[in-house]
Inverse folding.
């Protein structure tokens, strides 16, 4: 608190609980830790509206982070250290009048910090924030924009639900169906979408749903025949690896009886219904061929093939929601034209039953490689996995127990942690602190699941927990791969039911199989290359141009200076859900949680531009 | 309380609140009204497990009701008066060991009664009950079975959610899609449904969903091409007349942004998704031709035409869920073969635009007649309504404000009244008491909406509030029709935009129009007969036999001895959701609230029989 003693200020009393109101400045009474925590947070937040570089120097801890989703910066950014924070504050002071701060929840942590949730208002919208204090100084601050003044979504809870029909009788009015059919027939023809979303998986749909609710004209285009096919067309045994509590889409949560791990075809059906029920503008059977941004018109010209017919779309904004992975990375092998068996990328593997009794080789050792190897074994094939480099392995149950269960589980719901709250809680930690938190979790898991890790080592499998032992979460953020969530295949490897060569590469192919790096000839009827995907901005290169792809730079990754994630440190996923170096171009993707949570911020950015609100992006 | 003083009993203390525990038998302290209410309810309920005819005599008020949904009677029944209650208790004493009674909520009503909600357990399942006490004696008791021991539905909240996949690797296992496709291809062929549901609207689907969750093999057959068509194929301007809070289906509630009054095509889309997402066994394009019950096999033989191909189904139980209305009632007019215009029943009216500038006559003055007249006017037709008898009219807003809003609204939800709770609250009143309650509501509405009622009278419209002034609710229960929920058409009548003849009948038709009972000749290009539907057991007559239809007797109606609802008094809807005089034959229908709530009890009855549990129906 002493840090504030130099500052004089006048302010409203934002303490809504009524506690401590009678405690004057010079009184000293013994407060409970939680009351002290509330008092500290209240005092700290009372100065937030008067943020200045001087204030930043005084109010923040030596190690400090300010993560902001749009509220101050109109981008997704983490500022680290007082200097960075002071710079942002100096630049933002004019644009962001924060007020109406209300503390909604306070916690005291005996290990040495207090935290609180608060709501606030800016000139442009309403937000939710989170604060962690150490000795009264800010350790982490998290500010998010949640809605735009005057453009709040209509909901039941707010009492602003739409009527569905206007009672009364109106000459010549159109029914809901007629209106919807008219809108769908005009979009892409008489009417241009303000925002074109390429890719109609969970990412594109979640964003489309938010834009629809916000009244931003959108169109989703997808190459498959039916919404949901991006899941249906994967290998037959695929189920979501994340549990149901983590996977809800916006607005239409899975019902209470939904299975924990959704089978892929059930997911496909859900998405197909979602597109319909959320009234998305969705074109199936549509290939995107070329997109060019016109500087003069400030709009895109996008060539598509819609059900075989060429069309030109002219959106103001283009969102690539084709998945966090880029184009499948298919190796070329010497002699592969001589190979008589089947050779395919994992993305093409569907799991037909014809491999029973056949010799199958899976190149790679991440999630897809393990799932496909197990699927082949279930069908009676002889499977061998070729591991090229060490892999992070963690049991699905352990991941849920030690990582997500606290936020995404039945227990979390019972404790009042809604899905939306869980998303914010997870995001309240800056990426810089995550490896440290994750390493603690990794230690626990390594001890608890020692049988698994010892078994894998005995089988010759190269298992590790990442370059800095920070496990799956940071691997996911840094490179989006490099791990397997164990649901049975590791056990098959331990038991020798799935054969293993490690380390092993394919040197060349011949008529009957593969020659490995150890000189062994491995006969094969099928070789599946679970060799991953190219970078996400590969989509930009193939759809727009190499120049634009270069200008944008890499997508995903934090700049952690680890393998596949070169520095410098960015502190947020590169180019995801925020303005890029190419005007009007956005990237959206990731798992279901990210598709749900970050589609909100992307939609708000698009809505603000659609409505012509002042949007000053802080791009220092 | 004095009524209990003669009885000696030993019991566990069911008071979970911990209040009053130190109050001994002979102590007298001043209690708050709510504490007194809780004490009264607790004392009363402590004897419920020891129910006997003698107890009934002592524990009930002179005017008393016991409404039971399965828990005691394995049917849906209201017992009125001590004698009826004593008889039931005498007969049920052996079969129903009630225990584990827990009071969950207590209220004191200063107008002279206390009420509480409680949970309980029987030998066969768990239930929810409700009690109203006057001076410590029971005025109304309501007992419901909610689940069967050992057959509880798997849910997230109970921590029994299904996994979706069994982690681990199992040779030759089928994926979710393969299992589902196999089950769907077998049902009606290798596998017979235990329960066949005829009619795939909201009623059939709600029941199908509950049976699916309970693991009872079912099949829904429906004549339309697509699930949801029963709504899509109605007139173009139709929206649900009940608001969204009243309309949820089980398991998959409408999302928070859903409009208040769902347009019919949006409802159709919702139902189509519902069938898919709830994994219903659903045959579209299927006509039912004949059903015969085999006494020897205790099963039905049902002839259907499934996508044009004849099939025989052999379910143990047959549910007619073809709507609470029977076959359309189409009058025959003298001279109708000469009429050059279009003549149709309201069920066939779809609202094509071709009636602009044409002379249109709507015969009838209930909901459909008004909606169709307004729809024609909106399209620019010249419309005249022929009113044959007085009609109950109430503004939609007033219905919501004074009738349903307390239970089904955003405000009710905010007050903690979930949809399921609202259903039970509504059902806690015996039908006998409803006219009295409704009459009070009617008085308020007549005063508030005097402009509407005066305007209608001035326009010559015969408006009333039912034979006993008890309004729309009782009319709905007695005959399922006779009313219009005003959403604009009454205003058009008042303003003369919809013409009116009242009272008026069509005497005969000629080439150009209709001759009315007042001798007037009314030219017409279109005559829509909104003349209602035949009785529900008409379905049984046409599908099974006249003998079975006669054995069953009328469906729907309470036996109120009013027009279209002959006595004797039944106290519950006749034949609905409960055993009928024909073994293995059930009726299901009604509005969305009834489809939702009563599908639970019908599903539990079917599940109990499917599992071979002891089911003793009290049929006194």
């Amino acid at each position: 608190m002493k840090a504030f003693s130099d500052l004089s200020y006048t302010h409203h009393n934002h303490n809504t609980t009524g506690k401590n109101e009678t405690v004057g400045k010079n009184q000293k009474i013994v407060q409970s830790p939680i009351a002290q925590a509330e008092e500290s947070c209240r005092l700290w937040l009372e100065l937030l509206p008067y943020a200045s570089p001087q204030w930043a120097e005084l109010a923040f801890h030596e190690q400090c982070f300010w993560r902001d989703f749009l509220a101050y910066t109109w981008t997704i950014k983490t500022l680290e250290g007082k200097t960075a924070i002071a710079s942002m504050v100096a630049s933002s002071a004019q644009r962001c009048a924060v007020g109406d701060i209300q503390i909604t929840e306070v916690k005291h942590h005996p290990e040495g910090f207090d935290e609180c949730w608060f709501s606030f208002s800016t000139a442009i919208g309403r937000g939710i924030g989170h604060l962690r204090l150490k000795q009264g100084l800010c350790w982490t601050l998290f500010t998010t924009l949640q809605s735009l003044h005057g453009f709040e979504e209509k909901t039941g809870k707010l009492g602003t639900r739409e009527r569905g029909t206007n009672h009364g009788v109106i000459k010549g009015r159109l029914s809901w169906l007629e209106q919807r059919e008219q809108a769908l027939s005009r979009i892409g023809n008489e009417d241009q979408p303000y925002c074109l979303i390429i890719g109609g998986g969970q990412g594109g749909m979640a964003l489309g749903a938010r834009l629809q609710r916000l009244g931003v004209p959108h169109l989703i285009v997808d190459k498959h025949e039916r919404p949901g096919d991006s899941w249906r067309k994967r290998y037959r045994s695929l189920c979501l690896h994340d549990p149901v509590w983590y996977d809800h889409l916006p607005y239409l949560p899975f019902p209470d009886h939904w299975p924990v791990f959704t089978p892929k075809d059930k997911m496909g059906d859900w998405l197909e219904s979602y597109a319909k029920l959320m009234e998305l503008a969705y074109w199936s059977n549509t290939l995107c061929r070329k997109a060019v941004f016109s500087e003069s018109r400030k709009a895109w010209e996008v060539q598509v093939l819609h059900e075989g017919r060429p069309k030109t779309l002219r959106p103001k904004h283009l969102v690539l929601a084709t998945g966090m992975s880029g184009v499948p990375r298919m190796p070329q092998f010497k002699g592969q034209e001589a190979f008589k068996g089947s050779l395919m990328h994992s993305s093409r593997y569907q799991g037909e039953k014809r491999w029973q009794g056949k010799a199958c080789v899976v190149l790679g050792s991440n999630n897809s490689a393990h799932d496909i190897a197990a699927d082949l074994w279930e069908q009676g094939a002889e499977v061998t996995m070729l591991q090229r480099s060490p892999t992070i392995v963690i049991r699905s149950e352990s991941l849920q127990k030690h990582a997500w269960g606290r936020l995404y589980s039945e227990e979390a719901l019972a404790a009042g942690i809604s899905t939306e709250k869980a998303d914010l809680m997870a995001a309240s930690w800056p990426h810089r602190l995550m490896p440290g938190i994750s390493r603690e979790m990794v230690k626990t898991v390594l001890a608890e699941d020692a049988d698994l890790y010892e078994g894998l080592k005995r089988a010759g499998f190269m298992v590790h927990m990442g370059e800095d032992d920070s496990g799956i979460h940071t691997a996911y953020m840094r490179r989006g791969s490099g791990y397997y969530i164990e649901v049975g295949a590791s056990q098959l490897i331990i038991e020798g039911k799935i054969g293993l060569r490690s380390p092993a590469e394919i040197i060349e192919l011949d008529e009957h199989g593969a020659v490995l790096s150890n000189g062994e000839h491995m006969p094969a009827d099928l070789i599946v290359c679970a060799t991953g995907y190219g970078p996400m901005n590969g989509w930009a290169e193939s759809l727009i141009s190499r120049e634009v792809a270069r200008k944008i730079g890499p997508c995903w990754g934090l700049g952690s200076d680890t393998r596949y994630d070169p520095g410098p440190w960015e502190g947020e996923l590169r180019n995801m859900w925020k303005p890029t170096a190419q005007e009007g171009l956005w990237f959206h993707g990731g798992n279901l949680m990210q598709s749900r949570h970050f589609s909100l911020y992307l939609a708000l950015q698009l809505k603000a531009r659609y409505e012509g609100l002042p949007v000053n992006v802080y791009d220092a």
